[in-house]
Structures are given as structure tokens and as C-alpha cells.
Design a protein that fits this description.
mainly alpha, globular, 10% strand
Length: 129
């Protein structure tokens, strides 16, 4: 899924004047499922909880595509991390975690992004996700 970029934003980018706020608005409007999923993970953060997360599989391939696009693109993912003030982590086709930047060097984050963490988060019903 491509981003739906309004002409004024495209013009700003062509002039070298694209702001993070403009780009984040394009992402929010173009990838609403991904935006909602990441917003949910961020909102799930709480004191005493190691990270916020969203674990519900996308309802369709279109939504899955939005999430993959948002998290696979360095530009999109970086803009979302800056906007929400988090570091995003991703497993399978749907498990998104939002970590406080200060926790990225911690054991919980390292475990989440480790090969072991990925393997332990597998299941037969998620094989094709």
C-alpha cells in the first residue's frame, strides 16, 4: 500500500521543506489500521509494565499490509517512534510493542527482539501471517 500524499505535502517535500508533522499526518491518514495498532501499543504502556503492546492479528490482508508497511519502512517507523516518543519492536505479523527509549538497553527489550523471543512467539495458526 502506497501512502496517499496530498499535493501540498508533495510540493513541500520537493522543496526540501517536509516536516515530521506533515509526514506523520500522511502516515496516519494513509495507514489508519497501522496508526491505530501502534497507538494502542503506546497507550498500553503503564508504570510497572515493561512495555505496551498490541497482539490482535489484523482482520484482513489489507490491514496486515498497512502494519507491515509502517514497520518495515525506516522512514515511517522512525517518524512514528519520534512522534510517540517510543521505540517500536515487532514480532510475527501482528505483535507490536512500544518501549520507552530508556528501556532499549534492558533485558526485556533484548529478549523481545531476540531470536529466542521470536521463536517462542510462534504458533501454527500464525504460520501464514
Amino acid at each position: 500500500m502506497s501512502l496517499d500524499v496530498p499535493t501540498p505535502v508533495l510540493d513541500a517535500a520537493a522543496r526540501g521543506e517536509l516536516t515530521d508533522a506533515q509526514f506523520v499526518a500522511v502516515v496516519r491518514d494513509s495507514l489508519p489500521y497501522a496508526w491505530e495498532t501502534i497507538s494502542t501499543a503506546v497507550a498500553d504502556q503503564a508504570p510497572g509494565k515493561p512495555f505496551g503492546e498490541h497482539e490482535v492479528p489484523p482482520p484482513s490482508e489489507q490491514e496486515r499490509g498497512q502494519l507491515l508497511r509502517a514497520l518495515a519502512s525506516n522512514a515511517i517507523r522512525g517518524a512514528l517512534e519520534r512522534h510517540f516518543g517510543v521505540v517500536l519492536a515487532f514480532q510475527n505479523c501482528h505483535r507490536v510493542a512500544a518501549f520507552a527509549p530508556a528501556d532499549v538497553d534492558g533485558a526485556t527489550y533484548r529478549e523481545f527482539i531476540s531470536p529466542r523471543g521470536q521463536v517462542l512467539n510462534q504458533s501454527p495458526e500464525l504460520r501464514d501471517c
